[in-house]
Amino acid sequence: MRLTLLCCTWREERMGEEGSELPMCASCGQRIYDGQYLQALNADWHADCFRCCDCSASLSHQYYEKDGQLFCKKDYWARYGESCHGCSEQITKGLVMVAGELKYHPECFICLTCGTFIGDGDTYTLVEHSKLYCGHCYYQTVVTPVIEQILPDSPGSHLPHTVTLVSIPASSHGKRGLSVSIDPPHGPPGCGTEHSHTVRVQGVDPGCMSPDVKNSIHVGDRILEINGTPIRNVPLDEIDLLIQETSRLLQLTLEHDPHDTLGHGLGPETSPLSSPAYTPSGEAGSSARQKPVFARTWVALSPSA
User: Fold this and answer.
1) How far apart are CA 274 and CA 259, in angstroms?
2) 234-285 residue pLDDT tens
3) CATH of the domain at 222
4) Distance (Å, rounded) from C-alpha 285 to C-alpha 289?
5) Other C-beta atoms within 10 Å of 273: how many?
6) In the chain, is it the N or the C terminus that has fewer CB atoms within a 10 Å radius of its CB?
7) Looking at the 3D structure of the chain, how many domains does it have?
8) Which domain holds residue 35?
9) Contacts of 197 (CB under 8 A, 6+ apart)
10) 0.70 exceeded by the pTM?
11) Phi and psi of 123, rounded to 5°?
């Protein structure tokens, strides 16, 4: 939190009063006999004692405070600020683009391959926690080579780690072509496991999806968010209702981890939340194919957070 200092001045007639009448410096613990001193954080300070706790620079006009510690601007943002993955500069104000674990300035949210700015609502995929692609380049650069070298119907296990926010339009035929299951919490009851359930994609009907989309959603993928709400905050009895509500737009943040052995085979411990309502791919017409678009997650930066 950035704050402005208040500079106080002793009147000359009070300079000779007893020590008990003089303010005490919050830093050194000594009485303040100086003609001028500083007031901050509901305390008094010698001007020379009011310094950044990291670099010891004198804080003469403005300062940053966190948990009772004083910082200059540079050290505060170095310790508590968010670094843009695109330019490596600190993000100090405005909107922040969040993709997986990474944060970007809006102007730095660009495709690694073609350099195109990825606008709000444009398709994108974050690969291996670091590489950002627009939807077109991801499909051409990452997915297509895998499909050409591996069996076209099962490229999922050969794709890298990805985090994708997919927006699935409302369905006119009343089917998502998607079902989910839940992994039971790990650990004994009463140890904070009540809300640690893991929801995964259990089944996907390729006949209800366009080719690029069906290769972005895989059996075993973890669902991290539903309509922008973290899965841990969604009641279990509402998860399937939200996913199967085909009259509304559905947004899912999905994590595909090829090294997650729990997600590759949904064993007997997983509990299906619904049975897939599929249309056989041979009977699916063009009207049944709903092409999702991918969305970006924006948050407003708060320096005091």
Assistant:
1) 26
2) 988 888 888 888 888 888 888 998 887 555 555 444 445 543 333 333 333 3
3) 2.30.42.10
4) 7
5) 19
6) C
7) 2
8) 2-79
9) 182, 183, 184, 185, 231, 232, 236
10) no
11) -70, 145
